[in-house]
Amino acid sequence: MKLAIFDFDGTIFESACYWEKIIDDYLRKRNITPPENILSIVKPLGISGAAKLFKERFSLNEEQSEIVTDWRTKMGRNYHEVIPLKAYAYEYISKLQKEGTKICLATAMERDFVMPAMERTGISKLFDSIVTIADVNANKNSPRIFQYCAEQFQAEPYECTVFEDSPQAAIICKEAGFHVIGVYDGVCKNDCDLMKPVCDQFICSFYELI
Known about the structure:
- Pfam families: HAD_2 (PF13419).
- By secondary structure, this protein is of the alpha/beta class.
- The chain has helices spanning 16-28, 38-58, 64-81, 89-98, 111-121, 133-136, 144-152, 167-175, 189-195, and strands spanning 3-6, 102-107, 129-132, 160-164, 179-183, 201-203.
């Protein structure tokens, strides 16, 4: 493995349950029963897409931008203060670094949220590059961000391993020629059945790789 490319939310950080609670609470406060597996709906759409969907489906009074701001403000505090690394993520990534593997982060999350969490937990020092979708002007519905990471280190897709919790991202990466390890996000159990046939390997904990 020449390059390891890690997703942020739900892959190396235990953030899925925080996102689920914030969106669940938001809808319940408006007397709306949240749909089952709410995070499975949100992940492929992104926060803006999910806000648009819920506004239309539930006829929310708030503008889409207001919904997004509410969710992100609350999650911003969580990233700055409390969201932990997934168990054994630090140990595994440190192991890769010691073996000479380059380490890259590829995330749809804003850098203003990513960096405080990375620095608070001390894991930022293990990464050679941190790339957001804003850096490549493309979302995770295309392989561009992963290809950009590979290009930074003159690596071909087959020399890279992508670690992802999203079935859609896993499919996109496999189609683009990357090796893919699926990671259980701790919340979306239904995603496990979708990920396992697609990924080269699927894990519930990084301990399995150490």
